[in-house]
Amino acid sequence: MLHLRVLSPRDSTERALGVLREHPGATHLVLVRGAAVDPEGDVIEADVAREAADEVLAALCELGIDRDGGITLEQVDTSLSDAADRAERDAPGQAADAVVWEELVARTGEESRLNATFLAFLTISCLLAAAGVITDSAVTIVGAMVVGPEFGPLAALAVGLVRRRGDLVRRAATALGVGFPLAIAAAAALTWVGNRVGLLDARAISGDHQVDFVYQVGPWSLVVAVLAGAAGMLSMTSAKSAALVGVFISVTTVPAAGYIGVAAVLGQWEKVLASAGQLAVNLVGIVVAAAVVLLTRGRAASRTRPLARG
């Protein structure tokens, strides 16, 4: 269940109540007249089945409440109520299969912002990857994968393309386009310092190593990226966030970026190109797979709604 709070202008309150009363997926309806101060109006609260949320939000936005008032959604972890059970039973579809588009746009939009926190996590993850390459430590490489925040902007790119949200696409592309070069530069700086003080030389990445998979791009690189992108978007749209950890340690975006910085400083240009190819294949594969998942789930949801209304 999701908890819905609506700040409604007084002239829209009755119509908003009508939307919630008529929808079988809404329950626990509460009205407090005149409680909203800024923006001024009434406060309406309700619990909504996840599979009904997208339809309810669309109806409320048609009333202009998102412009003149406000709408917020919160996850309800536990609800002990026969009325809530009926709402979930009567709502169209299944909760795990429902896509709440406004929630998804807001979530991916927030995670794709270019800010100091995003740059810090991406830089730290690339530095960890560089350290893993230099020390030939697969465990450190896996740690870098987990720390990397790049899936947020990649998911936002997919959502922006599917929903035709140019602002979301530009924001995500900016975060990736600025973040990865800066993180690669930081990895190169770490390698340069280590080389200058005699901690490593070109032999550090010569010969056979455990971490050579980072730059060995091939068909399976695309397969893994596609599967990870699909799993990641399924996780985000179904609120099963635990699966995201598996996504993070499946793709070699951050390790490839870290390897670029190390190999460039040590003059291993063939490996620089191979790592760049690995990075590109993973980025494209994740975005395409995530977009396909969204298109598929969106079409499935559009087929379900007319059946529910009927």
UniProtKB/TrEMBL annotation:
TM spans (from-to): 116-135, 141-162, 174-193, 213-235, 242-266, 272-295
InterPro entries named in the record: DUF389
Superkingdom of the source species: Bacteria
UniProt keywords, alphabetically: Membrane, Transmembrane, Transmembrane helix
PANTHER family attached to this UniProt entry: AT15442P-RELATED (PTHR20992:SF9)
Protein name: Uncharacterized hydrophobic domain-containing protein
Organism listed in the record: Actinokineospora terrae
